[in-house]
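User: Fold this; tokens only.

Assistant: Input:
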Amino acid sequence: MRTLQERLKLAMAGPPKVTQAALARACGIRAPSVNDWTSGKTKTIEGENLLIAADYLKVLPMWLATGKGPMRKGSDGEPQPASKESNVVPMDSGRKSQDSSFITIPQLDVAGSMGSGRVAPDHIEVIREITVHLDWLRTQGLNYSKVENLAIIDGDGDSMEGTFSNGDSLLVDRGITEIRTDAIYVFTLDGDLFIKRLQRMIGGSLRMISDNPVYPSIVIEGEQLERVHIQARVLLVWNARKL
């Protein structure tokens, strides 16, 4: 089985070829840290950096972390040419259907935790992709950065019960990577992935709110704020209710 050093070099070889500096910028870290990965000095990539690096290199996080399973989704374990798509799902992000009035929104191959936080949870895919009319998106009053930034992820856990439930599919905007207003965000904290309501507080602190009253709010402040990284904003939930 290949080492982390070997897996990184294979993934960075492309095409397209990825430099250490480019990977460092994508992960928001210094280039020497990536050099530690590729030189074998560091044996593992932790938490959030693993997810970001895998997404940027267009490989599966499990393969990058452990060498187990296929390198890319749909492969049989052998190296496959890199896709132009940045998601792990083999489809064009925000690709349009044959009718230009519709947009097909892809599902990201990751579940966000609405509980205690997860890095790479196992989950059942509820929706693989969804095609909607552009006018319907407008009638929902949704404000999003770009159509290409829209994606679907599955929620995991019950801490947001009352707003959405375990297994619900969520429409998110990946173009929103900062807290512009109090809302529900997909974010990482200390390497774990969360879906929570974030509320700004006087003094710059954040309140992490679970809409399920069973779970108390958590205040994020001080140095911990620097470890909060916004991945997307949740715009809409798709769910099924038995009638």
